Structures are given as C-alpha cells and as structure tokens.
Amino acid sequence: MNTKKAAAAALVAALGVTTLAACGTEGARGSAGKSGEPAPKTVTLVSHDSFNASKEVLAEFTKQTGFTVKVLKSGDAGEAVNKEILTKGSPQGDVFFGVDNTLLSRALDNGIFTPYEAKGLDRVPAALQLDKEHRVTPIDTGDICVNYDKQYFTDKKLAPPQTFDDLAKPAYKDLLVVENPERSSPGLGFLLGTAAKYGDAGWQDYWKKLKANGVKTVDSWELAYNQEFSGSAGGKQAKGDRPLVVSYASSPPVEVLYAQPQPKVAPTGVSTGTCFRQTEFAGLLNGAKNPEGGKALIDFLISKKFQDDMPLQMFVNPVANDASLPELFTKHGVVIDKPETMAPEKIAQNRDQWIEQWTSLVLK
Questions:
Q1: Is residue 187 exposed (0-12), middle (13-18) or buried (19+ Cβ within 10 Å)?
Q2: Which residues 6+ apart lie within 8 Å of 313 measured at CB?
Q3: Which runs of consecutive H residues, i.e. helices, occur in 262-341?
Q4: Residue 31 in 3-state DSSP?
Q5: Smallest Cα–Cα separation from 12: which of 234, 239, 338?
Q6: N or C: which end of the chain has fewer CB within 10 A?
C-alpha cells in the first residue's frame, strides 16, 4: 500500500533533494520558453518523504524524454500538501506526488493543480479516478492498518489484536502508537477508518476508550514506525517499546527485504480488521516552470515500467491493470478484502472538524 503509503520505503529512502536520473540525452523535448531560452531539462517532482524509485527506471524516463528528474522530499504527506498550498501559484516543483484520498479535497479546493489527462489513463480503473477534471492522476493504492510485533505477542502468549474493538481492550493497554492525523497521512487514514467503522456518533467514544487504554501519539509515520514500534528494524535499534503501530498492510515485506539474512517469515503482522483504503495521486502543479516535462512525468508514473518497479520501492499496489507484483511482495504482504472506506465528499465535509475534535479528545 500504501500506502502511502506506502510510506514504508522511508526505511531506506534518503531525505532532501535527490537527482534520481542523471543520465539521458542532452536536448530536452519541447520548445523554448517565453524568454527565448531553451526549455528546462530538469523536471522537479515534489513528494512526501517516502517516494522512492529505482535509478534504472527513472534513467529510462530520461532516455525517453530528455528530462532529468529531481525529487524534492517535503515531509509527511499532510505536511507536504500544506507546503504546496502555501506556495500556490509559485510551486517548489512541476509535479506533486503523494496527495491521497484523505487530503485530496484540500488540495483541489486550494487550486494547486492544473488539469492534465495522462496518456495511458485507460489502464487505470475508473473507480480510482476521483477527480473528473483530471487535476490529479491515481498512481497507487494501499491499506493503512495496525501492524504488530510477532515476537512480543509470542513471548507474552497473547493473541495479537485483529479489530478496532480489540485495540481498546485492557489486554492491549499501553501497546499502541498512532500518528497525529493533523500532520500524518497514515494517522488521518486511521482516524477516518474509525469514523467509517463507528459512524459520526460513535468514533469519539471509541477514541476516548483508546486514550484510556494508553494510546501514544507522535507526529509522523517515521517516528511511530522507526522509533516507537518494537517490531521494525529501526524500532529495535531505537529500543521502541510499542508492539502495535499504525502503518500499512504492505509493511511486513519491508522487514524481510532489508533484513540480513532475510527471514523466511516476516517478523511483523497485520491486524486485518483495522484497515482503511488509501489511494495516492500525482498532479501537475499550477505555475510549474516545466509543464511539458511535468506532463511527461505523470504519463511515466502510470506506465508499466514505473508501475512494475513501484511495489518494492514504495511498498504500495500499482493502479495500472497491466502491472505485476513481485513474489516477495505477495508472499509477505497482506491482501485486505474488506477495508474501511469513505466517500471523498464525506471526507471533505468532515475532515477538518474531525481533526479538531480528535485533537481535543486525545491531545488535551
């Protein structure tokens, strides 16, 4: 997933500005700018911290188009979207990747994207194309779910929780760490999952139970998963003491792929009854300096080449119907058959109010 979702690739992705495709042809595709100068040869992709792609794949984009890709990582998804809203009309780059269905209306209402219908969009299910004006293009899906540290629950001879209801039981007191939904995309997805599960009238009572049961809140997925969670490689190094964390259904393959030696079974599991479906989008930024390069990059993000590469780079599911999943991803990831979902219109109507209510309930 993926979520992001996702965001699991932050375990290995470098932060900051990274040029991922430094090779390619010298002459960029396109005409000269208004000043008469040659069109820019670099296209800048602004993203959340968990964007990752193999150098070989983005080098192929450079070979095809003449544009070199520069990636500007801008924090968690919520933080990154807010930065683009603040710089609307004078963006940091040409394309933004990583706005998801939980934040989509905020981005669209603030006019940060320019409409563009990507080439190859017919290979993406219509159900994922949430904006009929094509201001954004779906790139991946994932499920935000609670992950658990298998060893902890084996040692304690305690069955790991599987549902939202389980998380509020006394047996799991002081075990769960979540992300702040005001700052974190997974945190917001988890909040929306509880609202979808318990309804407008019930989700606040549920969070009161979680608070009474010792839930811990941190600002980002990176802090929650790589510092507080006892089941991740990063969490073990940081001596994290929370065996339950809000992450992704696709996070367990990360713990296998980057372990030396690789275990036959993932050390973390997924509480399958705690999941919320996330879709991530990319869009051409309003005021982009290189709109032609941006359009070419969006086309490439839904190409089979990029979609096939994406699962083991960002641990999310591709949206293109001709993409394939690697064996490690399918073997150690979890397919969520019935995730919680919510209509974008309902998210737009309630998101900010729910975040304020959540803040009053949990942080004060």
A1: buried
A2: 9, 52, 53, 54
A3: 291-301, 304-309, 311-314, 327-332
A4: coil
A5: 234
A6: C
Q: Yes or no: say if 322 and 123 are a contact pair by the CB < 8 Å rule.
A: yes
**pLDDT number for residue 36:** 55
Phi, psi of 287 (to 5 degrees): 95, 10
For residues 318 and 140, the answer to whether their CB atoms sit within 8 Å is: yes
Kindly state the tokens that stand for 111.
Answer: 């006019």
Residue among 193, 208, 210, 171 at smallest CA distance from 247: 193
Residues 6 or more apart from 289 whose CB is under 8 A from it? 40, 44, 94
Report helix, strand or coil for 343.
coil
Asked if 4 and 142 touch (Cβ cutoff 8 Å), the reply is yes
In the block, residue with structure tokens 């930065």 = 83
Distance of CA 233 to CAs 2, 152, 311, 329, 355, Å? 19, 14, 20, 18, 31
Residue range 154-166, pLDDT digits in tens: 999 999 999 999 9
Contact 8, 315 (CB under 8 A): yes
Rounded to two decimals, what is the model's pTM? 0.79
What is the rounded CA–CA span in Å between residue 307 and residue 75?
23
pLDDT in tens, 83-110: 999 999 999 999 999 999 988 999 999 9
